[in-house]
Design brief:
Chain lengths: 221, 264, 239
């Protein structure tokens, strides 16, 4: 039983780190695009990316299964080609966490980018810097507190994901049962002692990340 | 000024609207109509919905169903859920409830039986023919209920142990939260095979294919007990529901959904 | 035919405002003079390339930076312009040295450092290399902005109301600095201001803007002697 608890902690960290890494790698460029560019369909893109934030996790999970299930629109071809499916794997749990955490970073990062004085960016351009150079040397450093806050929030959300994870990855001890799922199982089978321990740990960890997010946001806000 | 008043009064109206419309007729009806809440194992869903309709027609008493895995239902009961009847897919959960003094012991009765079967997705080309065949390398994922909280998972485990397939098969097992989820995963082709109740397999005949039925000797008899919850304000109505389960009419409905007669 | 100086012809329409100007200046200090909202900042942005005109042409010493008729447009980074913004736009996260270095991305690092230190010396900023902008006085910030604009050795220097936030003694001090820049760098300087006294003290040429158009341009005496309109007379008049 301790095995299940320890593995759930390990899985939670594994899933959350992987998901957050992907969130940062894809979310920062997307946030940059939304903040710095005007294009047709921009607000539609923003809405699509933000949807998982407001949809119930079970709805998000439903769409994920539709897309990535063994017979899903994307999962089907993948399974046919490789014999591998993301369902019931920790990668599936990471995918679910990624989808729900992404909007948090995008929203925060976009706001952080937009809060940087436009004049500073113009001045950098006039100095002869390319867009990339200006982004790297002026925009990112000045937005960094907001970016850290967004990352911390995304991580906390990724760790706490339940509904979509349950639907896509299942609740398999040692393989996909992250802490929230383990707590659900333990409560469902009456093992309150173990559930208490995990609940406490999750509360402390979530609180810690919120604190870090606030500190990061402190001066920026 | 008048536009502001109009806004305020229309907002007030909007807030009060449900109360106005919902008004007296319903509240009067609520005072007269009794409802009982039945927590039942999810494998009983189709049969109980039909039984519930019959019960309401016969007695004028409403039935609210709460379906789920028996283990989850037990936890809800322990947590003080205001349930009137508890119907489980295994003796174990009712035993535990009884041990905690949550039930009226004289009300307990076995009302149905079930069989355990091995199924594969209907569209699958699997050549699986028996439980023993599950160890073949072509079978990568097997759905079973979570033995911690789902009776069908416990029964499945017994069968696998009987055929000496555990612990080797452990890494292929995918745990579901309840019996219907096991069925759903097989039906959708997310897994290569699953262990479900015969009644569940029969509920989606075109989406799953029966491969084998577990021998009686390979698992504890699957017997569904039900009991009235202690402290219910609707004891008479609850007992009446149980009587219906055990009656000829009730047994006929259960039989039509694939359940076996209860062997008392 | 070698054309010398800055040639500007710009037309741009935005909701509620139309800019339609044509003027030129030699290698001198020209003041873009007028009330707020007359289009002075927009002109600087168009000349620098941050904005694009609907129609027009900008060229310096015969080198064409922008010509809508020919479909030519050089991006802002490629125009040899030093631009001091109205609020200076110093990078708050970079030191004085960092800010100045940022002004010359295309120079090799050693050359860049060398020039930066030269400029810091020129502008009496030695010793302040590691300070952050928020630790500087108003006058010091101005000079850092100037140094950053000049490190690339631009062919044109533009300043947008640079001294408006300073108190009087500092304004006088900065005028001196600007005179020094003018003497040392010998490049055309385009200064935007609505301060009459300042313009009178610095300008070789006046370009008077009025609601998006050039009301008049030339030397101060000529303008005063024959103002093109009562408005210009009023702008330049009393005193």
């Amino acid at each position: 039983m301790d095995d299940a608890i320890l593995s759930s902690i390990r899985l939670s960290l594994q899933v959350a780190f992987t998901a957050t890494l992907l969130v940062v790698l894809t979310g920062l460029p997307l946030a940059w695009l939304l903040a710095r560019r005007r294009f047709r369909g921009k607000e539609l893109l923003d809405v699509l990316l933000t949807l998982p934030l407001v949809l119930p996790p079970t709805v998000t999970g439903y769409y994920l299964v539709l897309l990535f299930g063994r017979h899903g629109w994307l999962g089907g071809p993948l399974f046919a080609a490789t014999g591998w499916s993301v369902v019931f794997t920790w990668q599936g749990a990471a995918l679910a966490s990624y989808v729900v955490a992404l909007p948090l970073l995008i929203k925060t990062a976009r706001a952080a980018f937009e809060s940087v004085d436009e004049n500073l960016l113009r001045a950098s351009t006039c100095c002869g810097h390319s867009e990339w150079s200006t982004t790297l040397r002026v925009l990112l450093p000045l937005a960094r507190r907001g970016l850290w806050a967004g990352t911390a929030l995304a991580f906390a959300r990724a760790m706490g994901e339940f509904g979509a994870t349950l639907m896509l990855a299942g609740n398999i001890p040692g393989r996909t049962a992250t802490m929230p799922l383990a707590i659900y199982s333990l409560a469902g089978s009456g093992e309150w002692g173990a559930a208490h321990a995990l609940v406490l740990l999750m509360t402390v960890l979530s609180g810690l990340f919120l604190y870090l997010a606030n500190r990061g946001a402190g001066r920026w806000l | 000024m008048s536009s502001r008043r109009a806004f305020l009064s229309s907002t007030l109206l909007l807030i009060l609207l449900p109360a106005i419309l919902g008004g007296t007729p319903t509240s009067v009806r609520a005072a007269e109509r009794v409802e009982i809440t039945v927590s039942a194992a999810i494998s009983l869903k189709n049969a109980f919905e039909e039984l519930g309709a019959l019960y309401e027609k016969q007695s004028g008493v409403g039935v609210l169903f709460n379906f789920g895995a028996s283990g989850q239902l037990l936890q809800q009961l322990i947590g003080g859920a205001p349930v009137d009847v508890f119907a489980s897919a295994a003796q174990q959960d009712v035993d535990e409830a009884e041990r905690r003094g949550l039930l009226l012991p004289d009300s307990r009765a076995n009302f149905a039986g079930n069989q355990l079967v091995l199924v594969v997705p209907a569209a699958s080309h699997s050549r699986l023919a028996s439980f023993k065949g599950l160890s073949h390398k072509d079978v990568q994922r097997i759905a079973v209920g979570n033995p911690r909280s789902v009776p069908v998972g416990r029964y499945a485990r017994e069968v696998l142990l009987f055929h000496k397939l555990l612990p080797a098969l452990e890494r292929k097992l995918i745990y579901a939260e309840n019996a219907r989820q096991v069925l759903d995963w097989v039906a959708r082709g997310e897994v290569d095979a699953g262990v479900v109740y015969a009644t569940d397999a029969a509920s989606r005949p075109h989406e799953v294919r029966l491969v084998a039925q577990a021998q009686d000797a390979s698992h504890t008899p699957i017997v569904y007990p039900a009991a009235v919850v202690r402290g219910t304000p609707h004891q008479a109505q609850a007992r009446a529901f149980l009587s219906l389960l055990l009656s000829e009419a009730g047994q006929e409905i259960l039989g039509r959904h694939g359940f076996q007669r209860a062997t008392r | 035919m070698a054309v010398s100086g800055l040639e500007v012809r710009l037309r741009k329409r935005v909701p509620g405002f139309t800019l339609d100007v044509e003027w030129r200046m030699e290698h001198e200090l020209a003041v873009l003079f007028g009330f707020s909202g007359a289009g002075k900042t927009m002109t600087l942005q168009l000349v620098s390339g941050l904005l694009d005109p609907d129609e027009g042409r900008v060229a310096l010493d015969g080198e064409v930076w922008c010509d809508t008729a020919a479909g030519l447009r050089r991006p802002p980074g490629r125009r040899p312009v030093g631009y001091v913004f109205q609020d200076l736009a110093l990078f708050p996260h970079l030191s004085v040295l960092g800010n100045v270095l940022h002004g010359a991305p295309d120079l090799p690092a050693p050359r860049r450092r060398e020039r930066a230190h030269e400029l810091l010396a020129t502008f009496y900023l030695e010793g302040l290399e590691e300070r952050l902008p928020r630790e500087l006085s108003g006058g010091q910030k101005q000079r850092v902005a100037l140094a950053r604009a000049l490190i690339r050795q631009p062919a044109l220097l533009m300043l947008d109301e640079p001294f408006s936030a300073l108190d009087r003694p500092l304004r006088l001090e900065m005028r001196e600095v600007l005179q020094e820049v003018r003497a040392r760098f010998q490049i055309p300087i385009l200064l935007v201001t609505h301060d009459l006294e300042e313009a009178a003290a610095l300008a070789d040429r006046w370009i008077v803007y009025e609601q998006g158009r050039v009301a008049q341009q030339g030397r101060l005496e000529a303008l005063r002697a024959a103002p093109a309109s009562p408005a210009v007379a009023a702008l330049l008049g009393a005193g």
